[in-house]
UniProtKB/TrEMBL annotation:
Family annotation (Gene3D superfamilies): Glutamine synthetase, N-terminal domain (3.10.20.70), Glutamine synthetase/guanido kinase, catalytic domain (3.30.590.10)
Source organism, top-level taxon: Bacteria
PROSITE patterns hit by this protein: GS_CATALYTIC (PS51987)
InterPro entries on file: Gln_synt_N_sf, Gln_synth/guanido_kin_cat_dom, Gln_synth_cat_dom
Keyword entries, A-Z: Ligase
Domain GS catalytic: 122-452
Source organism of this protein record: Mycolicibacterium komossense
Family (UniProt): Belongs to the glutamine synthetase family.
Protein name from the UniProt record: Glutamine synthetase
Pfam families noted in UniProt: Gln-synt_C (PF00120)
Amino acid sequence: MPGVSDAGPQSDESATDRRIEELRAKGVEIVAGSITDPAGVTRAKYIPLRRLGDFQRSGMGVSPSWSVFCVDTGIAFTPTIGVSGDLRIRIDPNDAAVIDDGIAWAPGNLTDQAGDPAPLCLRSLLQAAENAAAARGLTVRVGAELECTMLAPDGSPASTEPWSPYGIRTSLDRSAFLVDLAATAERAGLRVEQIHTEYGHDQLEVSLAPTTPVAAADAVILTRIVLGRAAARHGLRISFAPVAFEGGAGNGAHLHLSLADEQGPLLSGGDGPYGIRPAGGAAIAGVIDTLPDLIGVYAGSALSALRLKPGNWAGAAACWGLENREAAVRFIAATAGSPHGANAELKLIDPSANPYLAAAAFLNSALRGIDRQLELPAEIPENPSQSAGTPPPLPTDQRAAIEATEKSAVAAELLTPEVVEALVAVRRYELNTFGDRSPAEITQALRLAWSC
């Protein structure tokens, strides 16, 4: 139609100009666009606010090696990723959220020069999984919980007095920080549902409302950033290490998944246990079936095995159970106490996992179970280590987790061979660099590796 091709760019430019003025009115001077790499580290580039449109149209250049940057300053080059080439980070100006005085942030897609998704764009991988679910007639919602450890500015424990898990004293001691955190999250557009101090010393948890998969992973990164900025204003730092101190409580990064079709939710309203419909049971079965293959995605870092142990409520057993905190999949039934309905919580994910990649693995494994009509395994209603039907152990040791994912045809199918290659490369670098160190040395070295 005449004029359409001219109106589009002009309209886009006008919309970007309006967005610039909106952000300028909020005091924004620079905008960050970030990606989170296979090592789980979030990396960013910044532009002056006036160049917001360029960040969308042409993007900001990055080396392909960003996808094999490691938790320290190392680079785990692979046969397909070397020193040549160039990619772009592109953002949507509408996604920009104010994160600090003068600074806005938006999640980025990793693209080639033409704007097409790069093979290692993990946000695009999750979007493809979301699209695959929609093609099957399924609506997906993902919720997230972020556990972290508050630190003193020098990286030592934030407090030395006795800790009261979930205690009103331990939370009110940080009341100014918590109020700032809640207000900053609200301004950034985050839908925070709950904040509380946790079981571990100086441990904090933030729970987010369920939303679409990509938006949920975006919210995880934004929450990490907001936590870090609010903490800094109160003389604190935030650790998202799976274990921040040797012998301390582990930090989880639990994801909740719910699915629905035209007949309603798959995890309630049926004739199965707790109302689970056959397709819902197949989805849970698919997640459990692929746990040994995907453990390197969910908990494959040099610190992950310190957390993923029986007795830590970390979901170290490949089974499911109603409100069972020792099971990898904790089932939450549709009751008055669950305002968002029935869902399956994958507990073994820790904060060293890339949230886009972890959510893609979680969702794709559920879809795989539905496609194969897998049968829901028998529930383990008690502590798996004390159950007559004890599930086989997961390969939680880092070397075993890496090898399991590297050799898995299922991991390659669900995540692509390119993603598996990059993930294995950065985790093997960790193994070679930190594998011979003591837990105390590793926790000290990597305490802030995943902080934003």
